[in-house]
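Curious: why these numbers?
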Amino acid sequence: MTEGTGISELDKKIVRLLQGEFPLVSEPYKVLAAEIGISEEELLARVTALREEKKIRKIGAVLRHREVGFTSNCLCVWDVPDECMDETAARMAEHPRVSHCYERNRATGWHYNLYTMIHGYSREECEAIAAELSTATGIADRRMLYTKKEWKKTAMRYFTEE
């Protein structure tokens, strides 16, 4: 495989593997590598290469927030001046109760451009977290859109057609 182009069959296997359940053992990468018939060292070398080639960004856990007790969740949207976006988003993303933080384009009739997902044990706690974020960043204009029902809790899956 030429760097920067395409993706090898081995790398597709690795991506599929990393999208699944992560083994809760002392040497998880050794277990994962064995599943596709390679060494732990080869797996880690390929994961490192995929990151360096910018073919994968991260490996992360998905928190099933309701299962750990967070019963109040809201998408808090903010009106952030464009010139403050990077600093404001970085500050909000640091908060331990913010699981997602991303910029969106403004739309006609909707001037909000920064979206944060806040998790709490109550609406009052979510409101307090939003107030903390507002104080820390100086951004006051926000709307809080509370989760009514969760329809889907899965991540995007790649190379599943094979």
Q: What stands out?
A: The chain is about 35% helix and 15% strand. Residues 16 and 122 are 36 Å apart (CA to CA).
